[in-house]
Amino acid sequence: MQADKKMRWSVHILRTLFGAWNLFFGLVFFFEFIPQPMGHGEMTPYLNQTLIDTHLFHVVKVIEIIVGILLLTNRAVPLALCVYFPVTVVIYIVNMYLEEFAAGPFIAIIYLAVHLFLFWAYRSYYLPMLAWRAEINPFKSQKD
Predict the structure, then answer these.
(1) Does the predicted TM-score (pTM) go above 0.70?
(2) Dist CA 126 CA 107 (whole Å)
(3) pLDDT tens string 60-114
(4) 3-state class of 1 per DSSP?
(5) Is 44 helix (H, G, I), strand (E, B) or coil?
(6) What is the pLDDT of residues 18-34, one digit of tens each?
(7) Any transmembrane segments, and where (predicted)?
(8) In Å, how far are 102, 124, 126 from 22, measured between CA atoms?
(9) 24 vs 101: CA distance, rounded Å
(10) Minimal CA–CA distance to 119: which of 87, 79, 90?
(11) Which of 39-43, 77-81, 133-137 is least confident?
């Protein structure tokens, strides 16, 4: 019972922090509360500027805002985590291998670990997707 309560609180806290982080940095891009971090590595400012110039950064930031809101409001969390995972992988790669400041790998590992922990916590929603052989039957419910 105690372990279940700790797990629920851990998920709630990490989901809320992850959602707030994404919402904040999504909004920062559009409203410039603080300057957009462009990176500290040799290549990261070029990468980020290219993403901005091609408007791909805009797409990522809109996704961050939507995912942040969904996580904060505890709505469609499994879907939000799936949609956001490619962004998490890119953030991990950039911070782990392209950033040249000491906190880069730390941020990369923590960010990926939180996302993977939340995946694990919501794993029951993903298990049906892992069917090795799936039959198409749109009229049959999974309970049948």
Answers:
(1) yes
(2) 26
(3) 999 999 999 999 999 999 999 999 999 999 999 999 999 888 888 999 999 999 9
(4) coil
(5) helix
(6) 999 999 999 999 998 88
(7) 12-34, 54-72, 79-98, 104-122
(8) 22, 24, 22
(9) 22
(10) 79
(11) 133-137
String of b and e for 108-117 (b: at least 16 CB within 10 Å)?
beebbebbee
Structure tokens at 87: 């962004």
Q: Please identify which residue in the block is written with the tokens 């670990």.
A: 113
| Identity of residue 120 | W
CA torsion through residues 94, 107, 42, 47, sign: positive
pLDDT of 144 higher than 60: no
Structure tokens at 24: 């904040």
3-state secondary structure of 117: helix
Backbone angles phi, psi at 90, to 5 degrees: -65, -45
Q: 18: how many CB neighbours lie within 10 A of its CB?
A: 23
